[in-house]
Amino acid sequence: MTLPLVDRFARVHRDLRVSLTDRCSLRCTYCMPEQGNEWLARQSILTVDEILEIATVAAAAGITTFRLTGGEPLLRTDIVEIVRRLAALESPAGPVEIAMTTNGIRLPEVLPDLVDAGLRRLNISLDTLDRERFRALTRRDRLDDVLAGVRAAQESGLRPLKINAVAMRGVNDDELADLVAFAVAHDAQMRFIEQMPLDAGHTWDRSTMVTREEILEALGRRWHLEPVPGRGGAPAERWRLDGGEHTVGVIASVTAPFCGACDRMRLTADGQLRNCLFSIDEYDLLPVMRADVAPADRASDIDRVLRNCIAGKKAGHAIDDPGFLQPARGMNAIGG
Ligand code: SAM
Ligand code: SF4
Q: What residues does [4Fe-4S] cluster 1 bind to (predicted)?
């Protein structure tokens, strides 16, 4: 039996975020530059067969959740095949679970096929309900397409459905309660993310980011917030709204990091394994995938790189350390 992926701090890794592309239909300011992005070379992007080979080894080593992300994962024309083949994998704990984080734009077209292929969990990113703000923030006039995607998700019956927003001062911090009400009306859970230093423009400034405390204060003016216990390794802390069935989540990666319970690792679209969103080091699987070797040898090489990556994982992301260095890749090329 393959041993689980345990790091030096006894964290067992069960979640692999798979970035399928660095390309995107939007250009969110906190993620990508407006122009001049250096795209990953097309020939370096992992094929569906290569993703499957890596995922098969990861599942055998105890990965139970594969979250597909990007860039925009729905831009992959083979997205349904990717979901179908991943969903058939088994980990020692049983069948794996396939989740996706998307900007929602192609959901009306593809969601029925994705659900049929085995997609089980969905997060949609939506930072504002105002068309002009959306256009300024994403540099694309596509709010209506995202809203259609949210409706398709609501109709799909995939639950819990989550809507993610990055809280930003002077951009959407006056809209936080309205976003929660919108999510509740669509039977979804709103989650606010503290903005992280991962923008390609390197413009992040801690003093201007909206904190967990400010988010809770804003929401507390409209609802009574009651903490939901039993967070486990989940990045979001949750609160029940007015004692009802709906909850809101906050992902306080900057002011209340949850590194101690982190069970995630990442695979970029060009085959780099990362043990943290913020790591500077990457563990290159591309030469392993392109080497002319027998499948069994490749599987053991993939397993070795997975374990090297986990062995190199640090205790925390250290955003607050004076020596903190922002990763060279923007969020779109890492996979959020
Ligand atoms: N395109 C898809 C989407 O937007 O959902 C998937 C990829 S996107 C990189 C994944 C998530 O990362 C989104 O929810 C986005 O809001 C979040 N994100 C991107 N840059 C961020 C940053 N600098 N700080 C916090 N969250 C960020
Ligand atoms: Fe695209 Fe998602 Fe980045 Fe926005 S956050 S630019 S939708 S990858």
A: 24, 28, 31
